[in-house]
Amino acid sequence: MNDKLDIKSEIYRKLIHIFSTIIPVIYYFSSKEFILSLVGVGTVMMIALDILKAYTVSFEKLYKMFFHVILREDEKDYKRNLFTGGTYYAIGIFLALLFFPKEVAILSILIMIWCDTVAALVGKTFGKKRIVEKKTLEGSIAFTITGFILLFILQFVFPDYNFYKAGFITVLFAAIFEQLSILKINDNLSLPLFSGIVFIIINSII
Predict the structure, then answer these.
(1) Distance (Å, whole) CA 88 – CA 132
(2) CB 63, CB 49: distance < 8 Å
(3) Interatomic CA distance for residues 4 and 57, integer angstroms
């Protein structure tokens, strides 16, 4: 029963992640200044909400009413874990937009949105071969395949930019990074930054 509830909660969370695909889409049709302003406002609001829920009893009750169902167990201890995964997610997107060129930012954000989402759902639903903690081999394979598909799509969208040169290696490194949780930082924050940095480094070497 608990496993079913976990999967249901994960689906709700990942649907929100998938909806955020609108951010790289908007960026494609707009400027860096515009998308940074848009995401920056949203990120500041999420940080403010997390602080309010941790230190204001009345707001904590209101927050639980709307968001309790999609929070993981560790996120329900508001004072011990001030920021939720959603806030780290917003910060990760904002920093990727801020530091990376448009093509690299869009790739790194989409890796977090789609690869991580598919990996989590496949891992929870079909995963049997566990590698590290709750991470599964099936989830990592799904992560990698999804990343390769993204590269083909982005190469079509940006025909003048070579995603293939560094993209496939980047996806493989990102899958390993996500599987091993090398840094003790929320992967919603670390994954897009890691992917973008690896892509830039490999692109400059090859």
Answers:
(1) 22
(2) yes
(3) 30
